[in-house]
Amino acid sequence: MSGLVTALNELGGGVEIVALGGSRDASPPGVEYVKEPWHPPTNLGWTVVGLPRAAARAGVDVIHAPAYTAPPWSSIPVVVTIHDVSYERRPDWYPYRRDGLRRSFYRRSACAAAQVLTDSEFSANEITAAYRIPRDRITVAPLGVSERFMPSATRHDELPASITPPFLLHVGDLHERRNLGIVVDAMLDLRAKGQLLPVSLVLAGVDRGLGDRLRARFRDSGSPDTVVCLDTVTDDQLIALYRRAHALVYPSRYEGFGLPVLEAMACGTPVIASTAASIPEVLGDAGMLLDPDDRHGWATAITNVLDQGPLRERMRAAGLARAREFTWARTAAITLDVYRQAADRAR
């Protein structure tokens, strides 16, 4: 969100951004701040009671709720950002699948909003399918990438202590829809055939119950150290991981955008990813796109990227060029236009 706010401020155009509630210290430079008024001390209480009161106190023309939940009724037009609707379309993957109240509130927030922002054409179509919101009320604003994600001039970025190159990298929480079993299958096949270099698989993200199973499969094959799970990493460590990985592997079955794909490309890291959901929109032809169930294809792609330096360099150059298309300035321009549409509808 900070990248979007900074870019909106840089656009000019007479827009004034006000942070409603939260911590004053967390507000980006150049943003006004309005303290939270009284509200019931829950997230629901803030969204239903506190946020509309703060918006009225600030005299804003539009409320932008940047993550799924928004006031279900408001005299001020609301723009809500919905990154994906996996919890509706595939509730078997959703950690709150038994939380009917939460899902109902997400639905109400989406349906009540004047405009909906989302990250990809895939997600726009999914939102329409899930909530029956007319497509003309949904605008796609692809995410940008921070300028911190860039190639290293020295290639000596400091890695977490447990990581030794060469390695493949996955970034994101570990749960079923990330489909990491296909990468493990491919690596085990290559190892059984003697075709895999001594390479590890580094998983940077909160383990939602998958990590032990993945480690156990390599342990059973006699290679217990092949999978390394890093629940938390600093921003500097994450950038170092991207820069020094041989490739990002991203076999996910469902993503509203797939930010790690963009971050990896911006760092000059080759990307091997699935053809599912929004991922082809982000990667384009700058990396390898594979069927998420093509075990042989994943094995071949991993072998080629590990073994062929010229291929890695071509993918690196293509990824860097592709990443330059995803700027926060573009996201901000689209977002500002949506604010104006929402305000005009209220007049």
Task: Please characterize this protein's 3D structure.
- By secondary structure, the protein is of the alpha/beta class.
- The protein contains 13 helices and twelve strands.
* CATH architecture annotation name of the largest domain: 3-Layer(aba) Sandwich
The 3D shape can be described as elongated
- Total strands: the figure is 12
Largest sheet: 6 strands, parallel
What number is the mean pLDDT?
Answer: 92
What's the order of the H and E elements? HEEHEEHHEHEEHEHEHEHEHEHHH
Largest sheet strand order:
9-8-7-10-11-12
Indicate the low-confidence ranges by residue numbers.
none
Radius of gyration: 22 Å
CATH superfamily of the largest domain: Glycogen Phosphorylase B
Oligomer: single chain
For the structure shown, list the relevant keywords.
347 residues; alpha/beta; Rossmann fold; 2 domains; six-stranded parallel β-sheet; four-stranded parallel β-sheet; 42% helix
How would you briefly describe this protein structure?
By secondary structure, the protein is of the alpha/beta class.
List the helices and strands and how they pair.
Layout: H1 2-11, E1 18-20, E2 32-34, H2 43-58, E3 63-65, E4 78-81, H3 86-89, H4 100-112, E5 115-118, H5 121-131, E6 138-140, E7 167-171, H6 181-192, E8 200-204, H7 211-220, E9 227-230, H8 235-244, E10 247-250, H9 259-266, E11 271-274, H10 279-283, E12 288-290, H11 295-307, H12 309-323, H13 328-346
Parallel strand pairs: 1-2, 3-4, 4-5, 5-6, 7-8, 7-10, 8-9, 10-11, 11-12
Helix pairs in contact: 1-13, 6-11, 9-12
